[in-house]
């Protein structure tokens, strides 16, 4: 686990993608990068991880979360939130190619990746709630 303490004593913490990583730690802002690939603890690891993390946010009225990932099929938490996202009030849901979502991504890298795979690897899905 890595952490950076800000001048207001808030901490930015990076942790492994496990359901026990943040036990007892309050979370104001949760960012899950590549949540479509959280399969370390099993096929439903993403759902279990979120089930354990969301209660850590309950003490903050304005708590926010973001899920960012390349898709890993039409399954799991990312897919479920993406599917319902367009129908939820105050939820931003987006899908686009990687360069649109992050123009700093190296174009040559994306071209190599695309030539290696016929999957949706060049797409990024994003769900934010507030």
UniProtKB/TrEMBL annotation:
List the InterPro entries hit by this protein, alphabetically. Answer: P-loop_NTPase
What protein name does the entry list? Answer: Uncharacterized protein
Organism from which the protein derives: marine sediment metagenome
Taxonomic classification: unclassified sequences, metagenomes, ecological metagenomes
